[in-house]
Every structure is written in structure tokens, then in C-alpha cells.
Amino acid sequence: MNKLKRLVQVAVNTYWEYKPAWTPRRLTTGLGEIDIDRPIFIVGVQGGGLTLLGRMIHRKRNVVSIGGGRRFWVGNNEMDKQYIGQLPDDFTLRSPEYQSPTFKQHMTGNEYDHPVFGTSRNWTYACDDLVDQYRKTEADWTPEKETALKRAMKESIRAYADEYDEARFLDMSQTFALKIPLLRKIFPDSRFIVQTRNPYAVCLKEAQDDSYPWRREADMETKLRIFSEHWANTYRYALRDLDDEGHNTIIKFEELVQAPEETLRTVLGIADLSYEEGLLPQEHHTLPLGASEGHKWHPIRTGLNEKYLDSIDKYKIKSVKERVKEIANNLGYNL
């Protein structure tokens, strides 16, 4: 990416990221006038394909996220790390790799320095060593936490929604998979979509990614242990917490890319949203100015798991399987 294009991207993203702080609507509409109606939470793991589904839903009129509405349907949508203000720690994920929103300093200097991965939390916050820190239930509720979370969501609705009384808030903070009981306490009418991805493929994918210094130093067995713990704990809690007749569904990333319309219709049904042809990625679609990760739209990429599944050996399979086997088998992921 050349410097000019990057400068434009940063400028456009900054405009949308900080619109809740400067929108003229602050002069005419108080947050007390805004209701949060059936918020939609997509939960899963990082790299699990949530962005594709989130963008499909975000193209709906009056669906808003923490970083944009339908005019910027590629905007930030993970409020645990992309809110321009400060959320309570129970709803926050901090890691030195995070660079969004623009100009925000995520780290406080008080983060736990793990002996293997330090303060990095990408694919580590749900490992056995940290999961209890991020797991939250009804017992963690306080009126102050509820007020702060609702305030952040209402600020976005005020800034981005065409019609306040029709707005639906969408979020895909992956850490919220560990906080479903707390979120349900705050939003009894919330909708949850759990999106899974083959653990044998995605854990190996992360283990082969050496973008972070600690990953270049750790051995393969250590990385597979941490990542398979992370995958297993994420879905163990999410599936257990949603094991009822509530408004939730479980979809697979593999189903989404192979049968996008059918899968999206299922999700929209749970979310109480109508299906429209223009929600699916199409060749004539143009991403909004300032968009990043253009590859996460059209054409829908299939076969992403195969390059990892084709190269995984029996030792790596064994390392992952001993931690994910029960949940993976129940979801239909068998090796």
C-alpha cells in the first residue's frame, strides 16, 4: 500500500471511529432518548471468519456497530478493543498489537506479563492460564458496568443510525464468548450467533503465524497447546451458556463460505432481520473508501482450511485433539 492510500485510509477511519464524539446529533438527542433493541452478538475466535458474516449483516439498513453504520459497513465492530472511550475492564481486551481506533493507547502498564506470550492477548486470553480472568457471569454485574456498556452502544446508535427507533446494534468482540451470562443479564432480549471454525485448521494456522515475537521464540508444541486451549475454552463456555431455547444459533465458517445464502438466512432469522439479496458479496460491490481487508468480501474464499489440514501431521493432530476432541466431535470436526 502506497503512502497516499494509507493516509486516506487512516483519515477516513478516524472520521468514522470518532464520529460519536463530534456528531452534531449530540446537541439535539440525549442518550436517554435512545433504546437498545435486541443487540446482536457474533462470538467465536479470532481468525474464525466472523468478519465476513459481520459485514453481511452490517449492510442492513440501520444496523450499526461501534465504528459505523450502513454507509461504513466495513467499520470497527469489536467494542472490547475498538471503543474510543474506556469500557470497564470486564468488557475490555488489551494487547500491544491492537492499533484501532486510531490514536488510542490500549495498554495501561499493569497487564499481566505471561512467561510465554508476555502481554500479547491475541489467541491467548482464553487459554487455561488466563480464561478465568476474562470469564464473566451474572455475578459480575454492577449497575455501573451496565451503564457504561449501554452508553458506548447508544453513542454509536446516535452517531450512525438513520432512525434511532429502528436501530440494531451489532458486535463481534470475540472475548464476549466468555461473557454471555453477563451480557444476557444486561440485555435479556439479545441475540447470539456462535460461529465456529475447524480447530485442527485454525490452531495450526495460528501456530504457523510468526507475526508476533513470542510466536517466533516458542516451539510448535507450546503454541498448539495454548491455541487449542483457547479454542476449546471459547466454545465450551459459549455453547454451555447458550444451551437453552433462547434466541441463538450455531453456524460453521465452513457452511458460511459454501452455502452463504442459506447460512445467512438462518442467522437473520435468529436476529429478527429480513434477508436481502444485496447482503451477500457480489462482484459489482465496491468497498467504502477507507476499507481494509478487502479480501474478506468478494469473491468469498473457500478451501481456506485445506492448506492446513493437508499439511498437519499426526503429532500436531494429537496435540490439538487432546484438548478439543469432545467439543470438536460434537460440532462435527473429526480427524
Q: Would you mind describing this structure in some detail?
A:
There is one protein chain. The chain has 335 residues and is α/β, with parallel strands linked by helices. The protein has one domain (3-331): Rossmann fold, CATH 3.40.50.300. The chain is built from 14 helices and five strands. The chain has a five-stranded parallel beta sheet with strand order 2-3-1-4-5, with helices on both faces. Helix 8 (199-208) crosses helix 10 (220-241). The longest helix is centred in the C-terminal third of the chain and has 22 residues, at 220-241. It starts with a helix and ends with a helix. The model has no long low-confidence stretch (mean pLDDT 96).
Brief account:
The protein has 335 residues and is of the alpha/beta class. It has helices spanning 3-17, 19-22, 50-58, 79-82, 131-134, 143-160, 180-186, 199-208, 213-217, 220-241, 253-258, 260-271, 306-309, 314-331, and strands at 40-43, 63-64, 168-171, 191-196, 248-252.
* Portion in strands: 5-15%
Radius of gyration: 19 Å
Number of domain units: 1
How many alpha or pi helices? Answer: 14
Please identify, by name, the CATH architecture. 3-Layer(aba) Sandwich
Work out the number of β strands: 5
Chain-averaged pLDDT:
96
Q: Characterize the overall form.
A: globular
Give the helix level as a range of percent. Answer: 40-55%
SS content category: alpha/beta
Distance between the ends: 39 Å
Would you state the CATH class? Answer: Alpha Beta
Here the CATH topology equals Rossmann fold
